[in-house]
Write a structure and sequence with these properties.
This is Replication protein A 70 kDa DNA-binding subunit B/D first OB fold domain-containing protein. The protein is mainly beta. The protein is about 10% helix and about 30% strand. The model is unreliable at about 1-10 and about 145-155 (pLDDT under 50).
């Protein structure tokens, strides 16, 4: 393990999404895939440029995750929306560029050492939906892209 990198396999539930930091690339997460979509290649329609996901841990915290084109083939048939997985080893980057699907300050990317294992659907309960009051939505305004929550219509 390189200097400054932290291994953090904290047992069956893994690491908390809320605690993800750039030094934690070897962390194990136990997460549900609440949203999964492919970004198509603009020149070759059948190939995906990347697979994008929103992951949620047992506490309900969410983080964006990408699988780049070079890794899509390794995981396309393994990871499914609404599935629960143990995932380990990520590149951790600032979550500053669109699409910004979560307010988490970091996002994850798969790389050559990323490992994924499917878990039983009963590993933990989760809801794909996160209902919020208007004041909560206004409080996160600017933290996530408006097209993910819609734009307010004023008369």
């Amino acid at each position: 393990m390189a200097s400054g990198q932290v291994a953090c396999d904290l047992g069956p539930d893994g690491y908390r999404v809320a605690d993800i930091k750039p030094a934690n690339i070897y962390c194990k997460l136990v997460v549900a895939v609440v949203r999964l979509y492919e970004l198509p290649n603009q020149w070759i329609g059948k190939d995906a440029t990347s697979i994008e996901m929103v992951l949620q841990d047992r506490e309900g915290d969410r983080i964006h995750c990408s699988i780049t084109r070079g890794r899509v083939g390794n995981f396309k048939t393994v990871i499914r929306e609404n599935g629960i997985y143990a995932m380990q080893n990520f590149v951790i980057q600032r979550n500053a560029k669109p699409p910004k699907t979560t307010p988490h300050q970091y996002k994850l990317s798969f790389y050559g050492k990323t490992k994924v294992r499917s878990l039983a659907r009963t590993a933990f309960e989760f809801s794909r939906f996160r209902f919020m009051s208007f004041p909560e939505i206004e409080a996160i305004s600017g933290q996530i892209d408006s097209y993910h929550i819609g734009e307010s219509q004023t008369s």
